[in-house]
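Per-residue structure
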Amino acid sequence: MITQARPALAVIGGSGFYDFFDDATETVRVDTPYGDPSAPITVGTVEGRAVAFLPRHGTRHEYSPHTVPYQANMWALRSLGVRRILAPCAVGSLRPDWGPGTVVVPDQLVDRTSGRTQTFFDRGGIHVSFADPYCAELRGITAKSATEEMPVRSAATMVVVQGPRFSSRAESRWFAGQGWDLVNMTGHPEAVLARELEMCYAAVALVTDLDAGVAEGEGVRAVDVFAEFERNIVPFKALIRRAVAAVGDTETCDDCRVHAGVSLPFELP
């Protein structure tokens, strides 16, 4: 039970992004038909607005990318009243000119995962529009929240791989050869589950490394990824806070309302 205002906005923190609020927060445990979310959800304020925060991998990074309870996470946020989500994440760059520390708001997604449950609709013949995987309004707001210290690139294609291993050099060169820009392990099915629940969703990607096909030497190492994220965490969190504060409308935008005129097999939370 939330004792303060219900949060219409949420931030899902990725690797190295395990907390968000400086002020006192309320911790909320949410039961879902899909089990427990990655962690209890904290609710705090940003510029006087109630905001929910959920660490995607858990508070101690106990979930690998392929074991994150994506369905439970998205259902829990929607149940609390969330309608718009900013989703910071760590990514590898497939472009030599986008080095570590670059922030990108992708506009396209390619799914290369396998075996992950990627829908709430196992019955009912429900199909959702996913031509544009990310909310254009949230993407625009985030791009406008850039500063000289932390500029933002406002378009890219992010390929999501199964993990938890990193790509081979051959895979990385193949991804880059397709014209894709970023590689990540958690962007799918998170984005499509948000769309199915009619929540606006935008990924905010922080480049932590050049992927194996771009870089020379040892290739990508987890220790380096976490170290690079830690080096950028303060300005990166500040960027997310500016974006959250700039979101004017806290309801789902028209483009992300994908069930108009459709009879669903169950009621959305």
Notes: Helices lie at 70-79, 136-144, 169-177, 187-196, 222-246. The first strand starts at residue 9 and ends at 13. The mean pLDDT is 91. The chain is about 25% helix and 20% strand.
